[in-house]
Amino acid sequence: MTRIDHIGIVVADLEAAIPHYRKVFGEVHERRDMPEAGLRIATFEAENVTVELLQHTSGGDGAARDLLGLQPGLNHIAARVDDVPTTIDELGAAGFQVMDGFPREGLHGPVAFFEQEEDMALLFEVCEHHEGHEET
Fold it and tell me: CATH number of 3-127: 3.10.180.10, 1.20.1090.10, 3.30.1360.10, 1.20.1560.10?
């Protein structure tokens, strides 16, 4: 793992949440609708981590709702890695189990979520950024 890439926060209403997070993190860095995943996303760039706000929409295949759940609040932490498939193998050898349907394409490149252990409070994700993505 090279570093924490982002934290994901599920919100009920993206437009209502943005002004609150703007007070702490400044202007929205990126906004994206991902209809195929049933998500609307806004990101804020802190000094050393990205804060990702996620709102479910009615579209998509339902995988995001199943994965992230509907409960608003802190949802997942993601580590940026150089190679998602290699990391899946390495973490698998350490006892982590990748969730069905992963890896798949995320906001900036391949991502994988892992099955949540009974004593883990958050989902764990690894993500890889495509060549040319702005570093933060």
Answer: 3.10.180.10
Token pair recorded at residue 75: 């949802």
Please state, in angstroms and as integers, the Cα–Cα distance from residue 119 to each residue in 34, 46, 50, 64, following that order.
31, 28, 25, 22
User: Per-10-residue mean pLDDT for the chain, 136 residues long?
Assistant: 89 97 96 92 94 90 77 93 96 94 92 87 91 51
Tokens standing for residue 11: 């919100």
**How many alpha carbons lie under 13 Å from residue 21 in its C-beta half-sphere?**
24
